[in-house]
Amino acid sequence: MKKIGILFGRENSFPQAFTDRVNQLAPNGISAEAVQIDKVLQGDAAGYAVIVDRISHDAPFYRAFLKNAAISGTAVINNPFWESADEKFFNNALAVKLGVPVPKTVLLPSHELPPDTSNESFRNLAYPLDWDTIFNYVGFPAYMKPFAGGGWKNVYRLENKEEFFEKHKETGQLVMLLQEEIQFEAYYRCYCIGGKHVRVMPYDPRNPHHERYQANFPNKPKLIKTIEGYVLKLNRYLGYDFNTVEMAVRDSVPYAIDFCNPAPDADVHSVGEENFEWVVNTMAKYAIERAKTAKPTLDNLTWGQFIQHAVARTPLNETSL
């Protein structure tokens, strides 16, 4: 019997629906359940062919558990090693190399010193930074947000440099991004599953959270096809099995705004019934597919094309979709 487990926290609707759908669709020999952990022994198999991870980004114990499971052959969705290494600024830098439009973005050191450091720890950092070049490059209005993390936490919209300096003081030890504002005529949030299944959803981040998927942006076939291509390219290079990409459209050009969401919102009360049905059904089928091919003696993780190119020492643009 091959087991598919789901590891989750406070969310309710998706984990149970996913488990029920896998058990409805899976052939004999494959079943799904909530992951149960009563001990974690080094190098010991977790007992699951596949684990869908929905919580380890907030729980270091779970992240270590998943790495231990992966080294014993579990196909973890998403790859916990890559997810530990990734962050939003690298995402943007990779997008630039791949030719995917992104807002102009700059990395900023934290306003306060990190723990166990002093001014001497940053002797390689110029003070002050070249603020004129930074502000001229990004422009205003701009957004400041953490270089890692999500959930619209610690996000600031800034009108000018005076407001930037005022708000930067509030960010403490967070490493931040300063990012060009894309004043959009349309906005979409896109699920991507398995590097091959994409659902483009009209989405308006200006609305209250529970109304964001009730947007009515136009469904232009050529634009949607371009968005789907960008979403697939980004996720295949990053190696995410389950992710969302947010695309803001300005002057008919879609810009990738945020695509480091490896535990994306899948709650029926926010995404709506139709999107919820799609994500539950598609994830269930994909998890079953991974369970069928998983071999306990092998590495069953997904490694993105960025890593594959690094190993092969080939340029990023040599892989075609």
Our measurement of the CA-to-CA distance between the termini, rounded to an integer number of angstroms, reads 35 Å
Low-confidence stretches: none
**How large is the share of residues in beta strands?**
15-25%
The total strand number stands at 12
Q: What is the chain-wise order of helices and strands?
A: EHEEHEHHEHEEHEEEHEEHHH
At the fold tier of CATH, the topology name of the domain at 104-180 is Dna Ligase, domain 1
What is the molecular shape?
A: globular
Mean of residue pLDDT values = 95
Based on CA atoms alone, the radius of gyration comes out at 21 Å
Structural class comes to alpha/beta
Put simply, the count of helices is: 10
Query: What level of helicity do the residues show?
Result: 25-40%
Largest sheet: 4 strands, parallel
Level-2 CATH architecture of the domain at 104-180: 2-Layer Sandwich
CATH superfamily of the domain at 104-180: ATP-grasp fold, A domain
CATH class term of the domain at 104-180:
Alpha Beta
Strand order of the largest sheet: 2-1-3-4
Keywords:
321 residues, alpha/beta, Dna Ligase, domain 1, four-stranded parallel β-sheet, four-stranded antiparallel β-sheet, 12 strands, 34% helix, globular
What does this structure look like?
- With 321 residues, the protein is an alpha/beta fold.
- It has a domain at 104-180: 2-Layer Sandwich (Dna Ligase, domain 1).
- It has 10 helices and 12 strands.
- The chain has helices spanning 13-25, 60-71, 80-85, 88-98, 131-138, 161-168, 221-238, 268-271, 273-293, 305-312; strands at 2-7, 30-34, 50-53, 75-77, 105-108, 142-146, 156-158, 176-180, 186-193, 197-202, 242-250, 253-258.
- The protein has a 4-stranded parallel beta sheet with strand order 2-1-3-4, sandwiched between helices. Strands 5-8-6-7 form a 4-stranded antiparallel beta sheet, with helices on both faces. A 4-stranded antiparallel beta sheet has the order 10-9-11-12.
- A hairpin with a 3-residue loop joins β9 (186-193) and β10 (197-202).
- α1 (13-25) crosses α9 (273-293).
- It is globular, with a radius of gyration of 21 Å.
